[in-house]
Every structure is written in structure tokens, then in C-alpha cells.
Write a structure and sequence with these properties.
By secondary structure, this protein is α+β, with helices and mostly antiparallel strands. The protein is 38% helix and 15% strand. It contains 16 helices and 19 strands.
Length: 510
């Protein structure tokens, strides 16, 4: 069907329409009557609504089967009543342009939602698409227009619309289109940064070029698939300097305030980047690349140390250290793998006896004996279970970190207690437990205590189960192992500074 206006005259044949209705036969009766809009169809009476609907659908199907299909030269049947099927009255009144039909002629079927009438009609595909719940059952084949067989020299001139019901112009001469008008030159696009227009006459030129480049770089950063906090911090620092220069030139206080906000943003983003990468600066010196890189990981490490201190089933520093390491191996699900080297490298006096005692008291479950665990190698590890760490029925356990965090914490603790200098000085289990404890009780610069005031002896002896009188030899051993310097023990606190080589192992206090 060619495009046509719904209100214009059209000499083509009117589209066909069949409407089958279902109405009550009378009051107080369940009988219904089925009527058709075609005068030749007789009315039917049925005993029930269900039977009436079945008969109505069958009657409409009979009309569709008997019909020859949609006719390509027909115009929409819905135009006879101003397309009220799909154009509401309020839309017709406020419509600036008349409804335009378009597309091939189709045979569409509509049905009332309540099942009171069914309708089939010939209309264009555009009208069918505009009717709610209309279903197209057939489409007419396009018919070549009168000018389809005419030579290309007789086709319509370029630039004019062509319709299938309009004949091609006669004559062999082609109409030459007029010359194109010269395109109007629009204004150059305005350059912006931070929703501010950069004046095209801003001087010096270097300042304007810097602002334009920064605006482009910020917009390009927003399109990046992954964030780069270091790059973003650099951009904000450049923005702060550029806006300061802009404020100096224009004497605009708002630009000065924007520069201060850019400086604050740069500092915050830089700190966030350092925390994510573990590169927290120590004073004015270089940044430190830590094994555990985020504050959340540091808190998880402290939580495991606190749990081991409160749930060790056996007394003594050796048992506490072994419980800590096995807890880290099984923290997520209560099960894990261990080999003999993991235990013999802890500096324990009799690791086999200690493992046997943990198994005897029920804290540890082994598939075999303690000797089998100590004899196992990395290629055939031993599966161990700590029943108290197995999650409950609701899936909760004593720790909040996930499956991927557990090996990070376990690897960190293994690196600390297995430090090369601690092994060379033959550090005892108590010394190694003190080393891992101090690594979590220092600030970012390595000073012991949250504010560099030291660690209280009461808290220290709670984590390392030794008497206060036994701490001096342990601290001396850490000093010889280049773990701590300037260590000083008072009646209440241990103060000192962790060495620079130990800083990557630390978990700074907030």
C-alpha cells in the first residue's frame, strides 16, 4: 500500500471488513446469539457463551478461508471511520498532521478482550501495527506501478517523492535538479572543562591550551573501561594549577575555590590509590609495598590473631602459634590441606606431640596419625579439619572474609613466621608469635602502637602467652633478627620501631 493521507480522496477499492459479534439472546437466559456484519450471513443461537465463542471464531475463520487474501490495490478499511480503531479522539483533535498510512496491505485480525466480538479487515501494515493486539494473518504482494517498465530516463526526477499510483513523467528529457545551496557555517564548538566554558580569547594561550587539553583528558578518562586512580589524581593536580592560573587572570574567586576542591580531590584519590595498592607512604620517604594491601585485609589479620588467642585449647606459645597457623589454613570452610614442612618450619620443640594433643582434645581432626601429617609432602598433602571452624547451617562462621581472602592471610602469616633472619637466629615459637603480633600493632611508619606510644604489656601477654618477665629475651631476639629497633620495655608498655625491611609485613593500625 502506498503512503496516503487518511482524509484525502482515494479512488482505490475500500478494504473489506468482517465483524462477528456475540450478544445475549435475552434476559434471564444463558443462550447467546452470534451475528456477522455480512448481510448474507444468518444469525446463530447457541445455548451457552462458550459454545457461542467457539461458533464465532469458526465463522470468522470460514470468512478468512473463503477470502482471496488481502488485495494490494485496497486502502485501509479503518479509514472509513477515521481510523478510530487506533487513533483516539483526543489525538485526532490535537494532531497537527493527518494520519498517514503506509506499507503493504495486510489482513489483520482483532479480538475483544472480553470475548464479545472478533474482526478481520484489510488495512496497511502501519495501521495494523498501531492497533492493540492485532494479528497479521496474510500480506499482499506488491504490484508494480504504471511506470515500472519505463526506461530509467523516464523515471521521476531526483529529489521528488515517487508513489506507486503516480505515473512516470512523459518525455525523454530528464529534469535537472537545481544547484545546491552553500552550507551555512555554524559556530565552532565551545570548549569546556568542569561544566565551564573556556573563553576563546583567554590569554595567555598556554593557559587556554592547558584547560582545553585537561577537559579532553577528563572526558577521555570517563570512557575508560577500568579506573586508574594514579592518573586521575595527576589530572586533578593539573586542574588545580590551571584553575589557579585562570583565577589569577580573571580575578574570579569561584575559580579559586574550584582549584582548592581539585587539590582536595587529588589528595583523597592519591590516598585511596595508595591504600588499594599497599603503597601507604612512610613520612616523607618512599611508599611501602605491603603483602596485605588494604585496610580491610589488615583488620581480617587482626581478627584471626584475636580468635586464636581466645580459642586455643592448649596452653603455651607453641600451641598458640600452631593453632594460629592451622586456623588460617582452615578459616573459610573448616577444612584445608597441610604438609609436614608447614609445621616443622615453625620452630616447635615437638610438633608431632603437639599435633597429637590437638587431635586428642577434639580441636583437630586428621585422616590418619600426627606422624602421617608430618611425613606428608606438597605433592600429597594431608586433609585436616577444625570442627569449630565449620560454618553453621545458615552458612555463617567466626570470620567474615571470603574464600579468596583466606590464602592471602595464610601466605602473609607464613612469610612472617618463616622470615629468613628469624630462622637464622633460631627464633623460638614465642618469638615468632611476638613478631607476627607486633606486625599488626604498629602504625604506617612502623612505630609500635596506634599513635607511636607503644603496646601495653597486658595486651601483649594476652596475645603471646608468656609472663611479663619473659618478654625481654624475646624482644632481644627480635632485635638481633633486625625486626625491631629502639625497643624499650617499661612496667606497662613496649615501645620501639619496626625496621624498614619489616614494613612490607605490617598491617598498620587505623
Amino acid at each position: 500500500m502506498t503512503e496516503a493521507t487518511a482524509n484525502e480522496l482515494d479512488e482505490r477499492v475500500l478494504g473489506r471488513r468482517w465483524t462477528v459479534r456475540l450478544d445475549a439472546a435475552g434476559r434471564g437466559s444463558a443462550a447467546v446469539r452470534v451475528s456477522c456484519s455480512r448481510p448474507s450471513c444468518t444469525e446463530q443461537r447457541l445455548p451457552s457463551t462458550a459454545a457461542g465463542r467457539t461458533a464465532a471464531v469458526a465463522h470468522l475463520k470460514a470468512h478468512l478461508k473463503a477470502a482471496d487474501g488481502p488485495r494490494a490495490d485496497a486502502y485501509c478499511a479503518c479509514r472509513s471511520d477515521s481510523c478510530r480503531t487506533h487513533v483516539r479522539p483526543d489525538e485526532r483533535e490535537g494532531r497537527g498532521q493527518p494520519w498517514r498510512c503506509g506499507g503493504p496491505v495486510v489482513l489483520a485480525v482483532l479480538a475483544d478482550r472480553e470475548g464479545r466480538w472478533w474482526q478481520a479487515l484489510e488495512c496497511c501494515s502501519r495501521c495494523a501495527a498501531a492497533m492493540p493486539a492485532a494479528k497479521v494473518v496474510a500480506t499482499a504482494q506488491p504490484v508494480p506501478g504504471p511506470g515500472a517498465a519505463v526506461d530509467r530516463s523516464h523515471t521521476a526526477p531526483a529529489g521528488r517523492p515517487r508513489f506507486s499510483d503516480h505515473a512516470a513523467p512523459a518525455g525523454g528529457a530528464r529534469e535537472v535538479p537545481g544547484p545546491r545551496s552553500a552550507p551555512t557555517r555554524g559556530r565552532l564548538p565551545q570548549k569546556k572543562i568542569a561544566q565551564r566554558i573556556i573563553p576563546p580569547d583567554l590569554r595567555p594561550t598556554e593557559l587556554r591550551d592547558e584547560l582545553v587539553e585537561l577537559g579532553d583528558l577528563f572526558r577521555a578518562y570517563q570512557q575508560r573501561p577500568e579506573p586508574d586512580l594514579a592518573l586521575l589524581a595527576d589530572l586533578h593536580e593539573r586542574k588545580a594549577r590551571a584553575f589557579d592560573g585562570w583565577a589569577d587572570v580573571t580575578c574570579d574567586g569561584a575559580l579559586r575555590g574550584e582549584a582548592r576542591r581539585a587539590e582536595q580531590a587529588a589528595a583523597a584519590i592519591r590516598l585511596q590509590h595508595q591504600q588499594r595498592t599497599g603503597g601507604v607512604p612512610v613520612g616523607d620517604g618512599p611508599s611501602v609495598a605491603r603483602l596485605l594491601t588494604a585496610p580491610a585485609q589488615w583488620e581480617h589479620a587482626r581478627s584471626v590473631l584475636a580468635y586464636a588467642a581466645g580459642h586455643s585449647p592448649l596452653p603455651g606459645a607453641e600451641a598458640r602459634l600452631l593453632v594460629l597457623m592451622l586456623t588460617l589454613r582452615t578459616a573459610h570452610t573448616g577444612t584445608g590441606n597441610a604438609v609436614g614442612q608447614d609445621l616443622t618450619s615453625l620452630g616447635l620443640g615437638d610438633p608431632e606431640d603437639l599435633v597429637a594433643k590437638l587431635a586428642a582434645c577434639g580441636w583437630l581432626t586428621l585422616p590418619g596419625t600426627a606422624g602421617d601429617l608430618l611425613a606428608s609432602r606438597p605433592e600429597s598433602p594431608t586433609a585436616i579439619t577444625v570442627p569449630s571452624l565449620v560454618p553453621s547451617e545458615d552458612g555463617t562462621g567466626p570470620f567474615t572474609f571470603g574464600r579468596k581472602m583466606r590464602p592471602k592471610l595464610s601466605g602473609w602469616a607464613q612469610r612472617v613466621v618463616g622470615d629468613k633472619k628469624l630462622r637464622k637466629t633460631k627464633a623460638t615459637a614465642a618469638t615468632r608469635l611476638l613478631a607476627v603480633t607486633l606486625a599488626t600493632w604498629a602504625d604506617a611508619s612502623g612505630r609500635l602502637g596506634a599513635d607511636g606510644q607503644g603496646v601495653s604489656l597486658a595486651a601483649l601477654t594476652d596475645r603471646v602467652p608468656v609472663d611479663a618477665g619473659e618478654l625481654p629475651p624475646l624482644v632481644d631476639q627480635l632485635t638481633r633478627a633486625d625486626w625491631v629497633t629502639e625497643a624499650a620495655l617499661t612496667d606497662t608498655h613496649l615501645t620501639g620501631q619496626l625496621t624498614e625491611r619489616v614494613l612490607p609485613f605490617t598491617c598498620p593500625l587505623p
